[in-house]
Structures are given as structure tokens and as C-alpha cells.
Design goal:
30% of the residues lie in helices and 16% in strands. Helix 4 (119-129) runs parallel beside helix 6 (165-177), helix 5 crosses helix 6 (165-177) and helix 6 (165-177) packs parallel to helix 7. The chain is globular and about 65 Å long. The protein has helices at residues 28-31, 62-69, 92-101, 119-129, 135-148, 165-177, 195-212, 223-227, 247-252, 257-264, 271-276, 321-328, 368-371, 382-386; strands at residues 11-21, 35-46, 51-55, 77-82, 85-86, 102-105, 183-187, 215-220, 232-237, 240-246. Mean pLDDT is 79; it is low at 320-366 and 381-400. The two termini are 26 Å apart. With 400 residues, the chain is α/β, with parallel strands linked by helices. The strands form two sheets. A six-stranded mixed β-sheet has the order 6-7-8-3-9-10, with helices on both faces. Strands 2-1-4-5 form a four-stranded antiparallel β-sheet. The chain folds into two domains: 10-287, 3-Layer(aba) Sandwich (Rossmann fold), CATH 3.40.50; 359-400, no CATH class. The structure holds adenosine-5'-diphosphate, iron/sulfur cluster and magnesium ion. Adenosine-5'-diphosphate is lined by residues 20, 36, 38, 56, 58-64, 289. Magnesium ion is lined by residues 62-63, 187-188.
Length: 400
């Protein structure tokens, strides 16, 4: 296993920002002073074959991040490097080549497929645009792809309306894989599907990743969906990235209060544990990206905000080595790829640091909550956990 620190990132995003003019119309771009700050100063890398989850509530800038990386919209500031090359400095021809290596799976399988095209035409379109193979070779490849994504190749001449939502999303996935890309930006690919179908599509994406070694930027608003597929997860709030971590650490030791509140809403499939958990409900509505709060953008809703939080924002900091080492330990990672050191909340140290408020993860081997990858509730103080068995563990349970 190679450490990510020694690998060359496939995609590198540096201080990316995207603002939209608040007013629409011909002169808005030039004269509008008010802007929607959709994405603000975010940085991350994606390594070959890795799944990088991007999660946050609706309107926090996830899709804008994906679209800006793909160069479907120009960034206001910051840089995107794909395979070491600055996308802003690429010629039109190079951008076309880059799009061959970077594909998109859209959220809505109903709106994203052209109803006038057969699924054969839809899946082969990227190959036609990039002049790949002869017509016969393309038809053969489409049949192969339909088979790989679990659709009947005999249905190549059918139209999208003849398929269910899950099948349509499989068509979108087949199309995204047509050119064997290195990176696919999956923009909420399962959020429009029924829960039972969601699992099938997630498993399919995982299988295809294992087969082709494709990296994913996996966008979702639901942490439980991201959990099933991601190697690392970034949490976004109002255009800012507030926490980046390997998935296991994020679920067992969330550092940022916003991540903690999102996680508290994820149900646990054990009614006894579920009963002991406390839901963290954030006060108020998310602020408007037209007028984002000063300092830490989360301060208007943060349960542990201090006066200074509204004054200035400090950059994400790395956690102590011990946590980083735990995150990179092969035994703790389900991924083939080692993870980068974890970065956490933005405060520099006590007394305002979110770290000082982070939930204490129980070190007891028999902790029922740790077994399912969640921190114990507030009542489980260190003291309770030092003596006797975990209060949440069912009597005689087999929790390791
Ligand atoms: N083309 C656009 N023009 C103006 N505002 C936009 C445009 N696209 C997105 N936005 C705004 O940017 C913010 C982030 O949007 P989006 O990236 O779609 O969020 P998400 O995908 O997280 O739901 C939202 O407030 C949205 O209204
Ligand atoms: S404690 Fe302050 S800096 Fe940390 S998340 Fe809350 S408001 Fe932001
Ligand atoms: Mg979106």
C-alpha cells in the first residue's frame, strides 16, 4: 500500500471559489455588485482509484464544485489541476481531451437522458464525439457496457421512457464509463432513486471502480450514502469545506460541530443504541450565500460558537500525528489507498477550538457505539467508560 503523500494526485483543487451575479440579465455579469458566494476557497486532492465523498446540505455548493472542476463553469478564483496540468491554461483541444478522462453522472436520471435518443445512441455519444472506433465497434462496446451495468444488450434500441429510474441511472453510468475515464464526478447519483435501488446503484459503482480503477468525486447530501462508498469524505457548509477525513475517522470522531450534527441525524440500525443517541438540532435556517456570515460561516448556528468566531476564519489544521497514523493504518482502512493526514476544524486552539468540544471517543473495546463506528452520546463520560462494561452494550452481547 502506497501512502497518498507519496502519490501524485489525479485531481488537485487549490483555493477554488465561485461566485455568481445575484441578478440575471445581459449586464448582470458586468454591473451586478451583489454576488452569490456558492463556493469559497476550497482545496482538496483526489488520488487515482479513490472515492472522495463531498457531503453537505442542499445549496452548500457541491454541484457548483463539480461543475467548476469539469470547467462547465469558470471559477472566480483558484486553480484546478488535472493530472498535474492547470485546467485554466489548457487549450480547447486539451479541455476536450480532459473531458474524455473526466466524466459526469447527473442527479436526475429522468432529465439527464435525451428522450429522443435510443439508449444505444446515448451511451455511444461520447465515443462518437471523441471519434473512438468505427460505428460497428461502438455498437459492440455499447452492448458490452449495457451488459456490465446490468442491462439487457438487446434493449439497445429502446428509448429512456421505457426504463425505470434505476435502469436509467444505469444507462447514465454506462455512458460515463464509455470512454474509460480516470475520474467520474457523480453528482448525487442515487438521491432521485428509491432506497432499495440506491443500494444496487452504489454497489454497481463500487464494482465498476474495482474493475476499471476509476476515481470518483461522489457528491451527496446524505452522510449514510457517502459512508458506503467513500475512502475520504469532505463536509461542506455554505460554500466552505469544514472537515476532511478518512470515512472511518469522520464517523467515529467527527471534529466539526456541523459534522457532529449531520451524523446525529444518521439512524443506527440497532434500536437500543438508537434510543441512547441525542439528535443535535441546529438552530435557525442556513444563511443565504448572497450574504454569508463573517468569520466562520457556521457561527450563526454553531452550538459552541464564541465571540471571536464571527470575526475571523482560520484555515483547517492537521490533527495530531496519532490520529493521522490511525487513519492511515491498513488494518483500519477498507480502502486500497492509504489516506492523507486528517484535517479538522478551523480553530487554532483552546478555548475556541472545536477540538476542545469534540466528543470523546470511547476506547473501551466493548463499546457498543464504537462497534458501529459512532461516538458515544454525551452522557457516556470518560469516567463511566473507565470502570465496568459499556453502559450501551447489551448484556452478553458479542460486540468485539
Ligand atoms: N447559475 C447560477 N446562478 C446563480 N446562482 C447559482 C447558480 N448555480 C448555483 N447557484 C447558487 O449557488 C449555491 C450553490 O448551489 P449548488 O452548487 O447547486 O448547491 P448544491 O449542489 O450543494 O445543492 C446555491 O445558493 C445556488 O442558488
Ligand atoms: S466553534 Fe467557532 S469556528 Fe468552530 S465551528 Fe463553531 S463557530 Fe465555527
Ligand atoms: Mg446539487
Amino acid at each position: 500500500m502506497t501512502d497518498n503523500n507519496e502519490r501524485t494526485p489525479l485531481l488537485k483543487v487549490e483555493h477554488l471559489s465561485k461566485e455568481f451575479p445575484a441578478e440575471s440579465g445581459m449586464f448582470a455579469k458586468r454591473f451586478s455588485k451583489r454576488v452569490v458566494s456558492a463556493v469559497n476557497d476550497i482545496s482538496f486532492e483526489i488520488y487515482p482509484g479513490e472515492t472522495f465523498g463531498l457531503v453537505g446540505e442542499s445549496g452548500c455548493g457541491k454541484s457548483t464544485t463539480g461543475r467548476t472542476i469539469m470547467r462547465l463553469t469558470k471559477p472566480t478564483a483558484g486553480k484546478v489541476f488535472f493530472q498535474g496540468k492547470d485546467v485554466a491554461e489548457m487549450s480547447k483541444h486539451e479541455i476536450k481531451d480532459m473531458r474524455r478522462e473526466m466524466q459526469f453522472i447527473f442527479q436526475d436520471p429522468y432529465a439527464s437522458l435525451n428522450p429522443r435518443m435510443t439508449i444505444g445512441e446515448i451511451v455511444s455519444e461520447p465515443m462518437t464525439i471523441h471519434g473512438v472506433g468505427t460505428k460497428e465497434e461502438r455498437i459492440e462496446r455499447v452492448r458490452e457496457l449495457l451488459d456490465v451495468v446490468g442491462l439487457n444488450p438487446e434493449h439497445i434500441n429502446r428509448y429512456p421512457h421505457e426504463f425505470s429510474g434505476g435502469q436509467r441511472q444505469r444507462v447514465g453510468i454506462a455512458r460515463a464509463f464509455a470512454l474509460k475515464p480516470k475520474l467520474i464526478i457523480c453528482d448525487e447519483p442515487v438521491s432521485a432513486l428509491d432506497v432499495s435501488i440506491q443500494a444496487q446503484v452504489l454497489n454497481l459503482l463500487k464494482e465498476l471502480q474495482d474493475k476499471f480503477g476509476t476515481a470518483y468525486l461522489f457528491i451527496a447530501h446524505d452522510l449514510s450514502v457517502v459512508q458506503h462508498i467513500s475512502d475520504r469524505v469532505a463536509v461542506m457548509y455554505l460554500g466552505k469545506m469544514v472537515e476532511v477525513s478518512d470515512w472511518k475517522t469522520l464517523y467515529s470522531e467527527p471534529h466539526h460541530p456541523y459534522t457532529q450534527s449531520l451524523l446525529s441525524a444518521v439512524p443506527v440500525p440497532d434500536p437500543d443504541i438508537q434510543k441512547t443517541r441525542k439528535r443535535i438540532i441546529l438552530a435557525g435556517d442556513p444563511p443565504s450565500p448572497l450574504d454569508p456570515p463573517t468569520g466562520c460561516r457556521f457561527h450563526t448556528r454553531c452550538p459552541i460558537a464564541q465571540g471571536i468566531c464571527s470575526e475571523k476564519l482560520l484555515s483547517l489544521r492537521k490533527l495530531p500525528r496519532a490520529t493521522a497514523a490511525r487513519a492511515t493504518s491498513p488494518s483500519r482502512s477498507r480502502s486500497r489507498i492509504a489516506h492523507r493526514p486528517v484535517v479538522g476544524c478551523s480553530r487554532p486552539g483552546p478555548p475556541w477550538c472545536c477540538f476542545s468540544e469534540r466528543p470523546r471517543t470511547c476506547r473501551k473495546p466493548r463499546c457498543a457505539l464504537r462497534a458501529v463506528g459512532l461516538p458515544p452520546p454525551a452522557e457516556c463520560s470518560e469516567k463511566q467508560h473507565q470502570g465496568g462494561p459499556c453502559v450501551n452494550a447489551a448484556e452478553g452481547s458479542e460486540i468485539p
